[in-house]
Amino acid sequence: MLYPLLWLLASSLKPENEIFGSLGLWPSTFNWSNYTGGWEALPVSFSIFYRNSTIVTVLSVLGNLFSCSFAAYAFARLEFTGKRLFFGLMMMTLMIPYHVVLIPQYVMFLKLGWVDTYLPLIVPRFLASDGFFIFLMVQFFRQIPRELDEAAQIDGCSAFKIYWAVILPLSLPALATSAIFSMIWVWEDFLAPLIYLNDIKNYTVPLALRLFIDQEGKSAFGQMFAMSVLSLVPVVIFFIAFQKLIVRGIATSGMK
Amino acid sequence: MKNTKARNASGYMFLAPWLIGFFLLAIGPILVSLYLSFTRYDMVGDPRWTGLDNYIYMFTRDRRFWKTLEVTFHYVVFAVPLRLIMALGVAMLLDKGLRTIGLYRAIFYLPSLLGASIAIAILWRQLFSIDGVVNQVLAVFGIQGIGWITNPSTSIYTLIVLAIWQFGAPMLIFLAGLRGIPKDLYEAADIDGTPRFRKFYAITLPMLAPVVFFNLVLQIIEAFKIFSPAFIISNGTGGPADSLLVYTVYLFNEAFKFFRMGYASALAWVLLVIIGLFTALAFATSKYWVHYENERD
């Protein structure tokens, strides 16, 4: 199960001539230069790629948390005309493959002059475009006792105050699950950056990794594997730290 | 009651971001994409209405379209059942109540979480290359390996093996399902001396059928959308000989390599119909498999 991952890790530390031709994992010498060399192997340093990925990921996660919890609060706790209709529509958008909206969105963002910026990657997240997280939060918010809202209302709390001071603090597991998954998915996302980012200076880490494939002739496999390992580090750290939450989230919600 | 107006106002205030996104990023683009699918549009001029031409061309003359369907179905038909069998098998092993179940669950799930990343796709390219690990293992048994990726008749299986390796997500759902089967059914069977495989066919499988179905539909929908590994392993081309030309890679290339936006929109709509059919199937049968998370942990 873990052998491919261990092989990747081992190969990232091996001298070039040991990567292929041996099944053993332990390198004869630890070739840390794969990491230092790989970091600077492309025309732009990986420092820039990591900075770019971090900007996109952090803002996207914040956008998802705010906009999705807003919508989820409306769907789960408020009464208003058209709620059922909109909830139904929201559920329908969950199953629309991204590819159907991709081309018109691209044309729209191109006309706005947003191509080759991070806006097409980030702004949709502030507009609750990941309906999956709305659904997850709605399910969670619904389990919070109604009496709490009513008590707060009697005390004169506004809807916003109830959302902020009652619902959100009680929903930390749902918020954490959403944050972790959106972090991992945005960090690993390849298709949207591939479409929207042109200038190598704007590349995210996954796009940068792909450049190594085109360089294969130069046989820098060790460096390519070293950077691949580093690209997985944030995901693995999150996984280890939040393993219980992630596992429970999957089993109960059926997501990927 | 307190006036409806005020209630609506606060409802729509909270819904505003989603509503804007819904019109600008979902409904609007869906309608535009439907329109574009009846046009020829290269992004330089305006879209030109061509009626059903894109669809007619797709179904009657575009041999690559049929090839991409063949490749994608080939992938779905092998990857989904094999992944589910693996997932169920491991879930049943874990359900036997090992003490370290948490650790194993985590280890088995990790590949699923990393699976979408480009690093894994790059790794896969190397594992299955002519001098890669797979061939070295085969050499130990005296088998002469081949270039699994460069050979059009085997390249799709590298993707299928990757899919099987990532069985973690359906496994966790199976595990939750197995926990829901009343233990006294097995105890009764034990008293009767029922053999193990009969218990599997007579108790586990029927009790688990709704979960199996749920996983099946979910995985089929996922599998149709596979993109990154196929794109990376074939270096963006879908080759060799279009053997890795899965549907979304074809769509991507038509749109962003050749700028045939109208035709790519038509392709997207056919994908929507395919996925829509499976989603409808899931919803139509949902009363047989829906269960709520507060039932049990």
From TrEMBL, chain B:
Principal location class: membrane
UniProt entry tagged with the keyword Membrane: yes
GO cellular component, one term: plasma membrane
SUPFAM superfamilies, alphabetized: MetI-like
Domain of life: Bacteria
Membrane topology: Multi-pass membrane protein
Membrane spanning stretches: 12-38, 73-94, 106-124, 156-179, 200-221, 227-252, 264-284
Location of the ABC transmembrane type-1 domain: 69-282
A biological process term (GO) from this entry: transmembrane transport
Pfam family membership, one: BPD_transp_1
Gene3D superfamilies per record: MetI-like
Keywords of this entry: Cell membrane, Membrane, Transmembrane, Transmembrane helix, Transport
Subcellular location as annotated: Cell membrane
Family: Belongs to the binding-protein-dependent transport system permease family.
PANTHER family recorded: ABC TRANSPORTER PERMEASE PROTEIN, ABC TRANSPORTER PERMEASE PROTEIN YESP-RELATED
Protein name stated in the entry: Sugar ABC transporter permease
